[in-house]
Design goal:
Chain lengths: 257, 257
């Protein structure tokens, strides 16, 4: 990392999925602020457009449903056509569980809906991204590219009423480690960020619910999405060149309990 | 780490304490922090290296001799750091430690085992005890663990046992003070190229155990360079990790993936 500024991601070309709002939008913005060129994608193309336009010329946008492998490949191709390489991916697209249910109450559709996006979607993304990243230039520090998976504290511990979500997020950690092992010799890193509960505008939680969720964290508050993007920028940057196969809990102490 | 790297991550007007400051990692982190604008108290056993480091770092650093096993000296060092910061202490890099005696458990010198645990665990607890009495809300404490905090390493029972214990200490401390916004985290490096690994290798050679050094998966088995650990330390010690509490960051080139 010698000679590369912490704040400087100007050598990076990034895809962020689920970047139309919340953590993903903050990541796209924070990465671009540090100089990266960013493909802002979201299933809601209008939301992606809004985020990309706020970033300015360093961003492009594209509507993307990560559960569609052809659309994922096309997004990677467009990124390569636009900027010539892919060096960072923030695989952040995911769906939550609107109604808590224990496993015996989850029907096939609800199981598949969560797994399709949160696990299969990440697989589609990682597969297409890795093909592109293998062609990225090898840097003096021995690395080519960095994949950041957006996990959850549900990647590390069980969460009530969300066995489909927890299964997918644990699986995502396994995928992250497997990628780290398989692609280390190619200089491609993979790490997972495990946020605690984030206070996002889209979550529309009542004050009581927010307060109860905050109390689950030793810091007794929810995260702001901007507090997650700092960890993502670190893992995206050459400063973390020796970090791979790691998970990084950004959870206000949630999993230290 | 170059000057420009650290300078982008501002520690201006913040004050901190580094224990084990004369060592390989401690001195590298000290240089980066002073370069980023911090006022730093360098605590270590008295040595020419400690004095030389303080001289090199100039007016924003002071050296304090401390035997980590002497609680009164630890309390004095913490107080000295607070006063040097202008009656504030924003961060502590709780880094003093020893690799302890090297050799198989069947040959373990129990007295030496106890001494290593005293330095690595009781010493760290003494620093925590006195630091937590004086730091302000929002302070950051980073403990130097190791991948030996989460995995075994042959011939290193004192080190591994003590670094596992240190992780427990980190989690407890975090839970106790998280609500005040004080973040206690652990940095878990893999083997770093430098004097400690040279001593460990020599110790194994003397014990005739000839344990092959496990390669990391990254870059064909190289060890970390100290600057690759410094960047992670600065991330945890800084403001960008504001929702990171009670957790650990593994920097090991994928060794434990």
């Amino acid at each position: 990392m010698t000679g590369v500024d912490w704040a400087n991601l100007s050598n990076e070309v990034v895809i962020v999925t689920g970047a139309g709002a919340g953590i993903g939008a903050h990541c796209a913005t924070a990465l671009a602020r540090r100089g990266a060129r960013v493909m802002v994608t979201d299933i809601n193309g209008d939301a992606a457009k809004t985020v990309a336009e706020a970033i300015g010329p360093a961003a492009r946008y594209r509507a993307l449903d990560v559960s569609d492998p052809a659309a994922v490949s096309a997004t990677v191709d467009e990124t390569l056509n636009t900027w010539g390489k892919l060096t960072v991916a923030v695989n952040n697209a995911g769906v939550g569980v609107p109604t808590p249910r224990r496993l015996h109450e989850i029907d096939d559709n609800e199981w598949r809906r969560v797994l399709d996006v949160n696990l299969d979607g990440a697989f589609h993304c990682a597969r297409a991204e890795l093909k592109a990243m293998l062609q990225a230039p090898l840097r003096p520090d021995g690395t080519r590219a960095s994949i950041v998976m957006m996990g959850s504290v549900g990647s590390l511990v069980g969460l009530p009423g969300a066995s489909n979500y927890v299964t997918a997020k644990h699986g995502l950690l396994g995928m992250t480690k497997a990628i780290a092992v398989d692609y280390a010799a190619d200089g491609i890193r993979a790490n997972l960020v495990a946020p605690g509960y984030v206070d996002t505008a889209i979550s529309q939680r009542s004050a009581d619910v927010k307060s109860a969720l905050a109390a689950k964290h030793p810091v007794n508050r929810l995260a702001d999405a901007s507090e997650i993007s700092g960890a993502v920028c670190f893992l995206a940057s050459p400063e973390s060149a020796f970090v791979t196969g790691s998970h990084f809990a950004v959870d206000g102490g949630y999993t230290a309990q | 780490m170059t000057g420009s790297t650290a300078a982008n991550r501002s520690f201006a007007s913040s004050a901190g304490l580094i224990t084990g400051a004369a060592g390989h990692l401690g001195s590298a982190v000290a240089r980066a922090l002073v370069d980023a604008g911090a006022r730093v108290t360098l605590a270590d056993l008295p040595s020419d290296a400690l004095d030389a480091l303080a001289g090199e770092l100039g007016s924003r650093a002071q050296a304090v001799s401390v035997d980590i096993l002497d609680e009164e000296q630890v309390a004095r060092a913490v107080r000295a750091a607070y006063e040097f910061g202008g009656d504030r202490l924003d961060f502590v890099f709780n880094n003093a430690g020893t690799e302890g005696p090297i050799g198989p458990i069947s040959d373990l010198d129990l007295e030496a085992f106890g001494q290593a645990l005293a330095v690595n665990v009781t010493g760290a607890a003494a620093v925590l005890k006195h630091a937590l009495r004086i730091v302000g809300d929002g302070a950051r404490i980073v403990q130097t663990g190791s991948t030996a905090s989460i995995a075994g390493a042959p011939d290193m029972a004192p080190y591994v046992a003590s670094k596992h214990a240190l992780l427990g200490l980190t989690r407890v401390a975090s839970r106790e003070v998280a609500a005040r916004g004080i973040r206690v985290t652990a940095l878990l490096p893999g083997p770093i190229e430098g004097p400690m690994m040279q001593r460990i290798t020599a110790g194994r050679s003397a014990a005739q155990t000839a344990v092959a050094d496990q390669p990391t998966v990254l870059d064909g088995g190289r060890r970390a360079r100290v600057d690759e650990i410094v960047s992670a330390a600065l991330f945890l010690l800084g403001e960008e990790s504001s929702f990171v509490a009670g957790t650990e960051l593994v920097v090991d080139g994928g060794r434990n993936a």
